[in-house]
Amino acid sequence: MGRLNGKVAVVTGAAVGIGAYYARALAAEGASVVVSDIADPGTVVAQIRAAGGQASGIRSDVSSWEACQAMVQQAIGDFGRIDIMVANAGIYSQLKRARILDLEQEDWDRVMTVNARGVFFCAKAAVKEMMAAGSGKIITISSTTVATGVPDLTHYVASKGAVEAFTRCLARELAGTGINVNAIAPGLTMSENVEANRAVLSATIAAQHRARCVQRDQTPEDLVGALLFLASSDSDFISGQTLTVDGGIVLH
Ligand SMILES: NC(=O)c1ccc[n+]([C@@H]2O[C@H](COP(=O)([O-])OP(=O)(O)OC[C@H]3O[C@@H](n4cnc5c(N)ncnc54)[C@H](O)[C@@H]3O)[C@@H](O)[C@H]2O)c1
């Protein structure tokens, strides 16, 4: 018996990278999963089905309200309900890094539109259905960069700071509804697009290893335990929190 048998999840940004790991892990625990991404989610859907799980795919841009409503409606149409929303989509590996004097309004707006507004829309679309059901888990994805600060990434880190603040506010706003809202804050994680830049990032990666209590690469698999915990009834008494998963750099 999986921990999530009978549950239905939507995972955004799940065609590649960490989101694909989240989608496969939720399915392996018994959840039916809508694999959503602006890119083609077909490979991940096929992987889940080949492993005996249930999944459907949808191409959706999280910065569009209509697209976010459509992916929640697909969960209901295909699997009858929505219990878990993982708002993972974000501009990260394709980020333009720039010092403030070189950072343009369009760079700022693009990152804010996907990373912050996208989380707002995904949560809003899910809340409507979860309120009626009287239960639900909304999981947002922040970053440890909110706590540490990083040069050249003010737009990205500000967008993730917005995600954390939004998570706290929404958790309180939904008090008494049965919906839990929590964030995961990953450290630098070697998802495939990050791995492709290992040579460029080698000094940063080495510095992260030294700073960690667990002194090795962080992999997408390292985030799966936290995701399943926040998606399952094991975390029913936890809301409004940000769970840091970074091998022990940021300590609370
Ligand atoms: N990898 C890391 O080191 C790290 C660290 C902290 C937080 N994060 C966060 O974790 C999440 C996943 O990271 P990743 O390394 O897999 O990133 P990634 O860049 O490899 O993947 C991001 C995914 O989001 C999708 N996406 C982008 N814009 C979208 C949009 N408008 N609508 C829908 N989907 C869209 C992309 O197609 C891609 O599949 C992101 O939110 C990222 O900010 C990553």
From TrEMBL:
GO molecular function terms noted in the UniProt entry: oxidoreductase activity, acting on the CH-OH group of donors, NAD or NADP as acceptor
Keywords in alphabetical order: Oxidoreductase
Origin superkingdom: Bacteria
PROSITE patterns referenced in this protein's UniProt entry, alphabetically: ADH_SHORT
Similarity comment text for this entry: Belongs to the short-chain dehydrogenases/reductases (SDR) family.
Name of this protein: NAD(P)-dependent dehydrogenase (Short-subunit alcohol dehydrogenase family)
Source organism of the structure: Pigmentiphaga litoralis
